[in-house]
Amino acid sequence: MTCRPQLVVPPSRWRASPRRLARLFAGQWLFGTGDAFLITAGLGNAPWTVLAEGVSRVTPLTVGVATQVIGLLVLCGWVPLRERPGLGTVLNVVVIGIALDVMLPLMPDFEGLVVRAVAVLIGVALVGLGSGLYLNAHLGPGPRDGLMTGINRRTGWPVFAVRLGIEAGVLAAGWRLGGTVGVGTVAFALLIGPAVATSLRALGSRPQTRGAPGA
Predict the structure, then answer these.
(1) N or C end of the chain: which has fewer CB within 10 A?
(2) Which residues contact 89 (CB under 8 A, 6 or more apart)?
(3) 72 is a domain residue
(4) pLDDT at 145
(5) CA dist., res. 19 & res. 16, Å (int)
(6) CB count, 10 Å around CB of 123?
(7) Half-sphere exposure of residue 196, counting CA atoms within 13 Å on the CB side?
(8) What is the pLDDT of residues 82-127, one digit of tens each?
């Protein structure tokens, strides 16, 4: 008797069980909450949040709405790259921005350098946990991840170089617009990869080597 290998069908990016949807929503809400911690700490934001905060300073948009608009524009960049979105990709644009605008007013005042530093670490941990949850739902990458992997696939440039180039440009633009850059930004850059990898391992998923999410 010969054993035929069974084909493993990847889960649909557009149809999800309630469990996968709950994981997706929880992950994206935690991601936005982590960003709110970083913003409130005032020691420096994640690169894309630096840009969103900068946009909010020169427009009537809130940080959350600015995050949504930027995410939508990044999705437009997927078209020439022929990237395939999913339900999670679309909801990423919507949910994280809402979470930011809901959670920011609820953040306490972080007084003292030590307390603010702890807030940064909590923020990074929440972003890492949230990323692990929504990646584990397998409903499509975030807009910024898709841009990075799409450029990598179309050009052959290394992922780390593509990611560095994109985030350096985003960071510079956000800083010029008045977004907060500082030691928190450096801490995020150094710690987010291990935080996401730890989250994925805890959820029973293999950490991806294509780069940590940028939302």
Answers:
(1) N
(2) 13, 75, 139, 140, 141, 142, 143, 146
(3) yes
(4) 86
(5) 8
(6) 27
(7) 21
(8) 888 899 999 999 999 999 999 999 999 999 999 999 999 999 999 9
Regions in the chain scoring below 50 on pLDDT: 1, 7-9, 207-212
Structural contact between residues 185 and 45, judged by C-beta atoms closer than 8 angstroms: yes
Closest CA to 36 of 118, 115, 120: 120
CB atoms within 10 A of CB 58: 11
**Rounded to 5°, angle at Cα 133 from 71 and 100:** 45
pTM, to two decimals: 0.87
Identify whether 78 is part of a domain.
yes
DSSP-assigned states of every residue in 180-194: --SHHHHHHHHHHHH
Total number of residues shown for the chain: 215
* 24 found inside a domain: yes
The alpha-helical segments, DSSP class H, found in the chain are 18-41, 47-58, 63-76, 78-81, 87-103, 113-136, 143-155, 159-176, 183-202
DSSP-derived secondary structure for 145-176:
HHHHHHHHHHH---HHHHHHHHHHHHHHHHHH
Scanning the structure block, which residue is given the tokens 């975030």?
142
Instruction: Tell which residue, 61, 63, 208, 54, has the closest CA to residue 146.
Output: 208
Residue 213 inside a domain? The answer is: no
Q: Supply the range of the domain harboring residue 67.
A: 19-202
